[in-house]
Design goal:
The chain is of the alpha/beta class. 41% of the residues lie in helices and 14% in strands. The protein has a single domain, classed as TIM Barrel (Alpha-Beta Barrel), CATH 3.20.20.
C-alpha cells in the first residue's frame, strides 16, 4: 500500500533557514494535516526529543516517516560514522520510523552559497575514493539493517552522488544499500526517473516526489547558479505542476505493488509559492492519478 507524506522543507528550508524561517512548526504541521497527508520527515524545527516529537506529531495525526543523516565516509573513520548513525537510528526508531536516509556530504556544495552546481560532473572522486565510499556506505547500510531499519541513499545535486552514472555505480558496487528515488534531483541532473526506477526497482524502498520547472533549469545551467539560487528561483515544484509526467511512474508503482512512502519534497521560497496551496496541488494530483 502506497502511503503519502510531505516534507517540512516545503514550509521551512533545512539548508537555507531564511527561506520560511518565519513559519512556525504548528503552521507547518496543521497545513500538512489540512492537505490530507499521513506523514512527514524530520525538519530543523522539530523537537529533538523523541517522546516530545511523538506527542507533537500525534496532535496532527501524522507519522514520522524518516530523517536525513549526513555521512562522511570519505573524511571520517568508519567507527565514528557507525556511532553517529546508531544515535540517529535510535532517535528514529523511538519516534516510530523504520527508514533512515543516508547522503554522503564530504565535499558537498549544495549548502554553500556562491558554489555553482556542476550539472554533468562525474569525476568528483578518484577510483580509490569511490571504492572507499562503496565499502563504507555498504557497512553503514548493513548496520542499519541489523537495527531493523531500511537504509536508503539520497542522491542529491551538489554532492558526490548526483548523476545517473553515479547512482548506477553506487548501486552496482553495494549489496545492502537501498535507494531513495528523488524525481526532482534526477531531472535536474538530466536523468529520466523512470529509467532509474526500472533499473533498480527492487532496491527502491523510498521515493521523494518533486517536479522541476525546465526553463529554470536551463537558466541555472546557463548562468552557473548555486543550489540556493536554484531553489529560490523555483527550479523545484510539486507533482501536478512542472515538466514531468508522473503517470508512467505511477503505473509502475501500482503494477509492482510498491508499499513504501511517496513524499512530496519540493523546496521553494514560501513567499513565492504558498506551501499549503502547493501541498493541495500535489495531494489532488495523487488522488486523481494513484487510484
Amino acid at each position: 500500500m502506497i502511503k503519502l507524506g510531505i516534507h517540512p522543507i516545503n514550509w521551512s528550508n533545512d539548508d537555507f533557514h531564511e527561506l520560511g524561517g518565519e513559519i512556525s512548526l504548528q503552521t507547518c504541521l496543521s497545513q500538512m494535516q489540512k492537505a490530507g497527508f499521513e506523514g512527514t520527515e524530520l525538519g530543523n524545527k522539530f523537537p529533538k526529543e523523541s517522546k516530545t516529537l511523538n506527542t507533537t506529531l500525534g496532535e496532527y495525526n501524522l507519522e514520522l516517516i524518516s530523517g536525513w543523516h549526513s555521512t562522511y565516509v570519505l573524511s571520517k573513520d568508519l567507527e565514528s560514522e557507525i556511532k553517529s548513525l546508531e544515535s540517529h537510528i535510535n532517535f528514529l526508531k523511538e519516534a516510530g520510523s523504520d527508514v533512515v536516509i543516508l547522503a554522503e556530504c564530504t565535499r558537498a556544495i549544495h549548502g554553500s552559497p556562491g558554489k555553482a552546481l556542476e550539472f554533468d560532473k562525474f569525476d568528483w572522486l578518484t577510483v580509490s575514493e569511490w571504492e572507499r565510499l562503496f565499502r563504507g556506505l555498504d557497512k553503514l547500510a548493513h548496520f542499519a539493517l541489523s537495527q531493523g531499519m531500511k537504509p536508503v541513499y539520497h542522491h542529491h545535486m551538489g554532492t558526490v552522488v548526483q548523476t545517473k552514472e553515479h547512482i548506477i555505480s553506487l548501486m552496482n558496487n553495494t549489496k545492502y544499500l537501498q535507494l531513495l528515488l528523488d524525481t526532482g534531483h534526477l531531472m535536474v541532473a538530466g536523468c529520466d526517473p523512470v529509467e532509474i526506477y526500472d533499473k533498480f526497482k527492487n532496491r527502491i524502498t523510498h521515493i521523494h516526489t518533486k517536479n522541476i520547472r525546465v526553463h529554470i533549469r536551463e537558466l541555472a545551467m546557463k548562468n552557473h547558479w548555486d543550489f540556493r539560487t536554484c531553489v529560490s528561483e523555483g527550479i523545484f515544484t510539486v507533482p501536478g505542476d512542472g515538466g514531468m509526467n508522473y503517470l508512467p511512474l505511477f503505473e509502475r508503482l501500482k503494477n509492482d505493488k510498491y508499499k513504501g512512502w511517496l513524499v512530496v519534497e519540493a523546496e521553494q521560497d514560501p513567499k513565492k509559492a504558498d506551501p499549503l496551496e502547493y501541498a493541495l496541488i500535489a495531494r489532488n494530483y495523487f488522488y486523481k492519478n494513484l487510484q
